[in-house]
Write a structure and sequence with these properties.
- β7 and β8 form a beta hairpin.
- The chain contains 3 helices and 10 strands.
- The protein has 181 residues and is mainly beta.
- α1 packs antiparallel against α2.
Length: 181
């Protein structure tokens, strides 16, 4: 389901489902991040849901679940203060990350396509940067809303690269599922 007009980056709370038909191949992203073929295959066949809560205005808690056997759920914390933090992730091991607000112009300049971000948050987007603490891979994700095929969608534009010089760009498109948990 398209994102309702009431949903903005300032209020992403609710359940969002990855729309695989509109999104990039998740397995390609995970391969650059060093995950096993078994994990990539399981996630590739799973339904992925994000449950987002916002305990404070600039803090996002995102619980990610996949409906495949033996795939543990993860919870990621995003605090939009541009401070680097480390975390132990069940898939990627020790990771680092930071997130912040950026302007529309900066977000549009980071895109490879002619698609432009919607101005629904006072000219702002969210950028989340991170990677493995051992330098094996890095990633940048820009969050915002775009119109795709006439429907408003929440999108994470993803750029992942690894120390071998391989990189991948794509977008993760989410369908709004419901309010609350």
């Amino acid at each position: 389901m398209p994102a309702p007009a009431s949903k903005t980056l300032a209020d992403l709370s609710g359940r969002w489902k990855l729309n695989k038909s509109l999104s990039a191949d998740v397995a390609s992203i995970l391969a650059l991040q060093g995950t096993s073929k078994l994990v990539r295959s399981a996630i590739g066949s799973a339904s992925v849901t994000l449950t987002i809560s916002q305990p404070k205005g600039n803090e996002y808690s995102i619980k990610q679940t996949a409906t495949a056997a033996a795939i543990p759920g993860t919870t990621e914390q995003y605090i939009l203060d541009n401070e680097w933090r480390t975390n132990k992730d069940p898939f990627f091991g020790e990771v680092k990350g930071r997130s912040r607000w950026i302007g529309l112009d900066e977000g549009n300049a980071m895109e490879d396509s002619n698609e432009r971000w919607e101005d629904s948050d006072r000219g702002r987007l969210i950028v989340a940067e991170g990677g493995s603490t051992d330098g094996q891979w890095e990633a940048t994700r820009v969050w915002g809303f775009k119109e795709l095929d006439g429907e408003r969608r929440w999108i994470q534009s993803v750029h992942v690269w690894n120390k071998e010089g391989e990189d991948f760009r794509g977008k993760m498109v989410y369908d709004f599922d419901s309010e609350g948990n």
